[in-house]
Amino acid sequence: MVDRGASALSLPDDWPAHPDPILALNRMGSFDWDLDNGLFHMDAQAHEVFDLRPDEYDDHPESLAVRVPTAEGHRLDTLVSQALKDGSENYGAYFRIRRRDGTLRWTHTQGYIRRDETGRPRRVIGIVRDATQELSDTEAHGEQAAQDAARREQTNVVQLTTAALAHARSVQDVIDVLKDTHGLTHLGATSLVMGQVEAGRIRLIAEGPAGSFVPGTEVTRIDEQYPMSEVVRTLTPCFIESPQEFAERFPILWPNLADLNITAAAYLPLIAQGRPIGAMGLLYSDRRGFSPEERNVLLALGSSIAQSLQRAMFYEQEKDLATGLQQAMLPRSIPSVRGADVAVRYRAGSAAGTFGRDIGGDWYDLIPLPGGRVGAVIGDVQGHDTHAAAVMGQLRIVLRAYAAEGHTPATVMARASVFLHELDTDRFATCLYAEADLATGVVQVVRAGHIDPLIRYADGSCRRIPVQGGLPLGLSAEFGSLDYPVATLELDPGNTLLLCTDGLVELPGADLDEGMQTLTALIRSGPDDVRDLADCLIDVAEERDGDDDVALLLLRRRGLEVQQPGGRLQQHVAPGDPEALTQARHMIRAAVRSWGARDRADEIELVADELITNALMHTEGAAIVTLRVLTDGDRRLRVEVEDSSSALPRRREAGESGVSGRGLLLVDLLTDAWGVEARGGGKCVWCEFVMPAGD
């Protein structure tokens, strides 16, 4: 009975000194409420409206409580308080008062709120009048108005439910909308059931509230005597208007509903494109019968639900196909790797409203290599569609092939870029390839436009490892830049190498550095086990519900009980690249320590550095440094430096004041054996160091 927003009287500034006689003629009283001191002044006519004598009222609003029932007072106080707070200029309301003789009379008030220059309310001026006759004149139409209001409310519920269903992407989303407290419960239903047609049967997919499940109805045949079976069979709604009718028409079901106090029910077929896809039932405990208008509202609701359910079913089918394709493109299984614990995870991105967007181009791979080495790959093909997934599958296969052929990490990446460029697609890809020797812990990393790797150390700390990189795959070949620098890292026992795609790093409103910092902090606080840590990280991605896919690979190096002989490490050193020379020295130092030649570390590093320097100084090309452990006979560490020159090195004496010429003398003096081998258009200078038997 509130008419907020009704127009108020515009009163002169000297009010209430001389009340307008027109108010008295219309049996209206006036009031002036000073909000600063709380005094509520009423004129004589207002006293009459409240049935109060002047000596019974002391200008305090609390004195009106003798006439205004408590519930009415609370309602009126709430209305006025809200108007004062929300900046309204006026308010209006109907409320009841109890007169001296105990009868209740309807009263109407209007108030005009005056505020100071800051907007603070200072004064309320208004009128009160007896509204009993006014309301009694409309009482005859009250029942019809209530029915109209109820019908409008039902129609509004249908509209709101339809709007909510428009966003449903799965069958469960549809069910959640229907069971929401702001949905069908406003129609007065006691409980809801919904079934989906599957292979000539109806499978129950929703029932509520909890505890209302009827045994034996989880799966029913369409030819059985159940209401949902009947509406699916006949494609017509079924309105049950009494318990007796329910018991007569459906004797199998009714005994299970008798304790729920069901008095009526409406069962609706869910029809889409001319065929039944399910059925829905609304059960009521406080109604008997359905008017034509109510039936039409429910039929409109059933049509809307059917369309949403079909759309959700199509979406789930698309999602299943996309997920199946994605899983087919990713490795079917990850091989176990001796000396390492590995965990991989993948999460499809969520882009609402677009079929096929649940498939993307993110991938991971783990490639066992000879000599106890393993290659770890993480990558992301541009796009979120089946074409991106197809490109990803091809790129994953060629990367695996190039790595298995024994190419260096830089060559693997360069060849993959050429392959993607020649694939004649408009897609490019970012990628990171890490080749790890688990015996030594030496990891060689190349990066093609991808985010940097992270290392979590055995003590729980974590940091991002900056790696110099090249252009994304496909672009590097297009722009003629196939240079992919190789970075060398050390992965000690207990340390974990983490590779991921940017879906795990990108945060709304944050740049990449902030995202990496957040991820680093999350890894620090995560569990120790790599599988548990992977679950933790992917759960965080699920909570964010981001649009981008997430691929994740964790490789934790274990300490080997028996030291392996080591595999084969290789580093490409280009002329004029001091960083590559530093990385080669770093690789040599780490390998010597891990392979048990610590006592000869200085000799090995000095000789290797000499051979690399000679190759760079006396040839026009790059040098390829290879380290390996030989176990035929004595256990020996072999260093090979290969270049593209066929000219053989010559040992010569240095002058009295010069140092040039001493290199091969050092090699001959410090090594146990050395020599030169022809290699195609170039040569390989090698040397060997006998390693102590006890190491």
Structural class: alpha+beta
Q: Care to count the β-strands?
A: 26
How helix-rich are the residues, as a percent range?
A: 25-40%
The share of residues in extended strands comes to 25-35%
Uncertain stretches of 5 or more adjacent residues: 4-9, 352-357, 561-565
Number of helices: 18
Overall mean pLDDT score? 82
What does the overall shape look like?
A: elongated
For the record, give the distance between the C-alpha atoms at the N and C termini, rounded to a whole number.
94 Å
How much is the radius of gyration in Å?
A: 42 Å
Biggest β-sheet: count, sense, barrel?
Answer: 6 strands, antiparallel
Oligomeric description of these chains: single chain
Strand order of the largest sheet: 8-7-6-11-10-9
SSE order and pairing:
Blueprint: H1 21-25, E1 28-34, E2 40-42, H2 44-49, H3 70-85, E3 90-98, E4 104-115, E5 121-130, H4 132-139, H5 142-165, H6 171-179, E6 191-198, E7 201-208, E8 219-221, H7 227-234, E9 238-240, H8 243-249, H9 254-257, E10 264-272, E11 275-284, H10 292-329, E12 340-347, E13 361-369, E14 373-381, H11 386-404, H12 409-422, E15 429-437, E16 442-448, E17 454-456, E18 462-464, H13 475-478, E19 487-490, E20 496-500, H14 512-524, H15 530-544, E21 550-557, E22 568-573, H16 578-594, H17 601-618, E23 623-630, E24 636-643, H18 663-670, E25 673-679, E26 682-690
Antiparallel strand pairs: 1-2, 1-5, 3-4, 4-5, 6-7, 6-11, 7-8, 9-10, 10-11, 12-21, 13-14, 14-15, 15-16, 16-19, 17-18, 17-20, 20-21, 22-23, 23-24, 24-26, 25-26
Helix pairs in contact: 5-10, 10-11, 11-12, 16-17, 17-18
